[in-house]
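Entry for protoporphyrin IX containing FE complex. Fields follow.
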Amino acid sequence: MSWHIVRGKQKYIILYEDYVDITKLVRELCFHRSLLSLINVGEPDQLASILNKELMGTYIYLSLKVKKTREVLSLLYDLGFSPLDLQVVKEESERAIFCAHCHTVFITDDHPHAVCEKCNITLSVTNHWSTFHHAFLGSFEFEGDSL
Amino acid sequence: MYSFPFPFEEGQSHYFYKNNAVQMKNRTTVQITPNYLKEMKLKRDTIIKNPERCFVALDHTYEAQWEATLYIAKELALRYPDTFTMTSRKYGFTLNNHLLKEEVRFDYKVNKEPLNDIGKHVQEDLILMFQREGQLFLDAGQLCFPSNWSLAFNKGMAFMDIHRPVPGFQEGQLDRRIERFLLHLCPGDPFERSNWSLMAGETLNTHLETFPEWGKKRYSVTEDTVGNYVHVRVEVQKLHRLPKTYTILFTIHTHLLSLKELSKDLNKANQLYTILLSLPKPIEEYKGITPYKSHVMNYLEGVL
Ligand code: HEM
């Protein structure tokens, strides 16, 4: 798992799921003496009402499985949080891919090629990362033979 | 009089990256060219078929969209009075487009996507960059004629992240320097630059989403077709700081000219030839020229 510490925020929240280990992140944030809340993500409705009360200057780490990350991200954007207010703690074994053809974001394992689960196109996974979609661009093969 | 915007500086004989944005003399955002009707039809057809590829806007962008809409409409009416007239009302205006024979109402908050609406009257792609915490984010835009990129993917992304795939763009912190330049852009002091590439075919709406359809043309260029088929593709890009919302309006006007037409001017053909000779391989590949570059070089050698 990887993350970076963003300093100088009034408060930090870690949104987590039961089976994701967040101890290292918690330890590091405590080391920086930050005001910290841990929220176990359950029903998105409850989550919305909890997060709605948060003040400006709150910074959120999402330490969730990729699928849950997507649900929670769209909720956060709806609530007015921007990509600058949050960070996805990346899991090394799973990756979210944005399909260049149909815009579906889907989850695959760590492999240079992926087949879009919606339009079935084979994509080559680029290292172009979107801080908004929290996904890598899955693009087309640029070799003549594969066209 | 329309003339193709040849992208190279006088005397330039090799390829290099730099911040090539220059202060704009005529302070315009858009330009009407003889292709207007043809391109407006293509633009509108493209939007109807695939709206999600052509327009994005995050919720907070409405005021800036409206400001950009007014900015462009006023310019159209002022610079092209025979073609556009604008009648103001308390909460909006009516635009008469005499070329398209249309009368369109723009009403504040009634038009839900004003940038998308005004974009249907200009040949340019229109992008709005929002400044937050020392960065610029692409939070709204209309994009119908992109050079192989996806607006949907780039939505909400920062300037530096958008440019991550451009080879060499981070060298010597060029990306940071360009970003700094953009952050200091002032209202009333617009800049412009051009971007160039070559393309096989004459397709303006080359979205990344449809790469398999148009990208394969790169492999069908032959010795016989290269002159008419390969085009120099130039994007004239203009950068305006909007005074009220402090958003940057980034307009992109894409122009195409076949190699054959360009080669009528031997100086220009020669300059293109020497610049192509010096083009670093990663950039040649990024621009998608590699599959047919040898045909282009042979063609230009033949002409010169
Ligand atoms: C502020 C608004 C701007 C936006 C939204 C923007 C967007 C983009 C995008 C989406 C690409 C294609 C990236 C890809 O392949 O995925 C690109 C390419 C590029 N941009 Fe920008 N850009 C902006 C301003 C600038 C400025 C001011 C410069 C330089 C002074 C610049 C230099 C370039 C260059 C050199 C390329 C590569 C083009 C090529 O070699 O064909 N951009 N830009």
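NOTE: Chain B is about 35% helix and 25% strand.
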